[in-house]
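Re: folding output
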Amino acid sequence: MDLDALLRLHAGLPRQGPGSDDATRDALRTLGPFPRGARVLDLGCGPGRASLAVALSLDAPRILAVDLLEPFVEELRAAAAARGLSGSIEARVADMLATGEPPASADLVVCEGAIYAVGFERGLRAIHALMKPGGAAAVTDLAFTGADLPPDFAAYWRAAYPAMTTVSENVRVASAAGFDVVAARPLPARAWWDEYYGPLEARCRALAAEPTLRDAIASTREEIDVRRRHAEAYDSVSFLLRRAR
């Protein structure tokens, strides 16, 4: 999907992947407590729902949220200002692998639904380098939950996300990257629909008559249809991690 089409379909929507404020807060409860003024990195922040949830949940956190797409960064800046959180959240256009932050400086790293862009193992090694010893990370990524995959489903994900693997393999990769895996927790079903696919489907309907978006809308609808037909075979999994070494 080209960038213009992506922004037409996604800009202004609550999220750019499965998730919920409740799931983010649950991850914080599982990984906490965190010190007052904890340094937090939100990598691939999109419109910043995770950053906002963290800012409202922790005691005076210092959050740096980065994303490559400036429109999403601007959305987060506006949302933070509207909630009086500009003093807690700095939103910056940057690559998640090149944040400019010093090594071993973060108490918490959050990466909700963005690590696929750089690869799970590569992303985890970059996250590990940014974390203080004993620091925590909450990383969500798509993963297969079973071995028996319907042929049409397997073919779809081989094309859409070739590196996608199983939950157990991602746990192994996280351990090899220097993490203790506290939990690997699938997101609840509503985390796919309430603030992600529901609003995205509505946007597709609203823009369906625009010929320049025909291919992007068809691709998006195919993705949503795969989720409806094969939800038992894969999930968005929250990997809750601590830096072990």
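--- second protein (sequence, then structure) ---
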Amino acid sequence: MAQSIIQVDAFTDRPFGGNPAAVCVLGSPREDAWMQAVAREMNLSETAFLHHEPGTAPGTYRLRWFTPNVEVDLCGHATLASAHALWTEGYLDKEIPARFDTKSGALSATCRDGWITLDFPATPVLSENPPDLNAVAEIIGQPVKFAAFSKFDMLVELESEDAVRSLVPAVGRMAVVAVRGVIVTAAATTPGFDFVSRFFAPSVGVDEDPVCGSAHCCLGPYWGERLGKSDMVAYQASPRGGILRVNLRGDRVELSGQAVTTFRGELVGKASDPSLESS
């Protein structure tokens, strides 16, 4: 039996904006090799796989995320896309929150007024072992105002929004940094936004992620402290671009965005195919 798959553009209200993610709602768990092969085939920054956990409440799903190269521990836009898929493809009523069991613990999503809100753990920057600013500036290709590591990534603050937007980084040199990705950010000068960012993750096969929700689990606490705010609006300044509402709630971060489905299809490859089982 063919497996349905959809593609969702997350953190946008229009097709072909924001960050695309593929979503497979499975009837039962599938082999890791098959999921990785599907993610390579889709060739998006993330492909999400989810299935209802037997014996759990309605709306509870096991969720995993794969880049074309590896499985990752946390992904915001593919979680938003997964919740959107459950509500729009008839798996779940919109009044019922989507709850996900993941490698980063329990996550949830709710829908209100066309916006999906994700409840994620905060991943603030760490004070220990700060990176050398001169070395970071060489990698970034811009003067660096601040740099620090978080649980997953390296956060780099530049002097201005223009510097973030015009950045042409050496992604090959970023790939050797022992982190999932590099978040580049600055305070916003564009009216309506508090801060802007871009996200580069060549070490996991994504040179630039169009809109990275999980990066805002670090960006939210970082800018919340500097701006003295708990509720902010962020813009990810990739070529596709995306808007996020960021709300700090103690050790959690609420990320809100919109999503649109761009296509529906079927996967016909079987897990037993040699091409799918090979690494």
